[in-house]
Amino acid sequence: MNLNLLFDNLTSPALLFFLLGIIAVQLKSDLEIPAQSSKFISLYLLFSIGFKGGQELSHSQFNIDILWAFLFGFIIAVSIPFYTFFILKKKLGIENAGAIAASYGSVSAVTFVTAVSFLEFQKVIFNGHMVAIMAMMEAPAIIVGVMLIAWFNKENTIKLPQIIKHSFTNGSVLLIVGSLIIGLVANQSQAEGIKPFTTDLFKGFLVIFLLDMGITSGKKLSEFIKNGWFTTLFALVIPLINGCVVAYLSSFITPEIGDRFIFSVLAASASYIAVPAAMKIAVPNANPGLYLPMALAVTFPFNITIGLPLYYAIITLVK
User: CA-to-CA distance for 271 and 292, rounded, in angstroms?
Assistant: First the structure.
């Protein structure tokens, strides 16, 4: 089963277009995505992710257990970028540390889908509000990453209240949070009216975005190779720690094995869609040649081959 999941995901158009971008640079091709088009695609992805997440939230039936689950997801999304930033800061610099920390605090929708397939194979169900929690966890990690970069930047003379305001009013953060709220208040018929744009076009724009990220990463791949041992070790060990710790702590939040497993996978995953799209706009000096290969080429395959069965085993042992 895990080999099938690995093959399906390693042959997905999203990953292959990312690799095509890297190959194009190595071949010294003139293939490139115009800067304005690239920015538009980044904005589109943030809008689509936020709006669909808001729609999922609007369909959730809230009760105290669901509120605790949302709070737990929020704490995960905030605490992971906070502690990982300080591990990364000295070695990789403030801007790269903030971008990578945000990536690992945020979540991977593709890893989430793979986790759902894993649960289906195990014949284990999970609650629908976990989809909304996944969407909710995108924005807090981005906000924390931007705040930490602004706070520790030596050239920055802005005080804490201004930093918080800047973090929330930053274009990429404002778009994903604003889209989430709009998706939450829009009714189903209103959402259907723009569904071709928010849903049907998403995968097509995603592969073009990852092609662009592949080209950008390929141009800066030497930085990843230079820090290879550190970045690779981080991309393997940190998700493992996050996933295992949450697999245990989730037992205090819910007894549902499926929900606990999803929490573990979300904690262990790293974003290579929303965060790169946000950081491309919010922190253009952060090097995507570091945070994209770490999330997409190291953490993602590790999770779907080793991480998923490991987190599931811990959850079934800790009841």
Answer: 9
SS3 label, residue 154 = coil
For residue 116 the two structure tokens come to: 């759902």
State the pTM of this model: 0.73
Q: How far is CA 106 from the centre of its chain?
A: 4
pLDDT tens for the chain, 319 residues long, are 455 655 665 677 777 887 898 899 889 999 988 988 888 888 888 788 778 878 877 777 778 888 999 999 999 999 999 999 999 998 999 999 999 999 999 888 778 877 877 887 788 888 878 877 887 887 888 889 888 988 887 765 555 566 566 656 767 778 877 888 898 898 888 888 888 888 788 878 888 887 887 887 777 666 667 767 888 899 999 999 999 999 999 999 999 999 999 999 999 999 877 788 778 777 888 888 888 888 877 888 788 778 888 999 999 888 7
Give the integer Cα–Cα distance in Å for 130 and 43.
25
